[in-house]
Amino acid sequence: MIVAVVILFLFLGALWYFAFHCRPANFPSGPPRLPIVGGLLSLGNPPHLGLRRLAQKYGPIYGIYCGNYPGVVLSDLKLIKDAFKDDRFSARPPLRPFLERSWGHRKGLIFGSGEEWLEQRKFAIKAFKELGMGSGRAGAVIEGEVQELVSRLRGEVGHPTAVNHFFHIAIVNALWHLVAGFRYEYDDPKLQALISLTGDRKSVV
Question: pTM, whole model, 2 decimals?
Fold first, then answer.
């Protein structure tokens, strides 16, 4: 009996230490960190309202563990804008899905991180500007493709429709129009084959 009580007290003590003291230096205050789940139980349902509630309790900057991954939540518009302007906030966490899709490395504009990502971002922004992004030409191309997309979707009213297929075509057409100067019709076999290959590659990844 005494041994069981001692073990219980040791367990509760370890849990208390883990929840309130096992945090990195200068980590913002936030909900207790529990083993395995971290602070996810503090969010409740729906989770976005839980984030708002935690901001009211801990302030516009607070820390929360998502499982074993530490995270910092910003809930103030000015703080969020300042963070987006600072390259120190551009890193991506080394999450397993990000690593598996690129063979153990974080690559590309979406999943990349660090100096390599900054160089790719600068190159992409420069290339898009040369293609007309941010100018009236790009806006006109995108607006025209949106109008075509809306027209196609209206023709599908009342029928079961895979809308993601139409969105994929609209995105490819807008980019291809900016790069090559022309667009495909929605029922063009070449475009259909391209969209199908893109879908197959996503499935493999």
Answer: 0.51
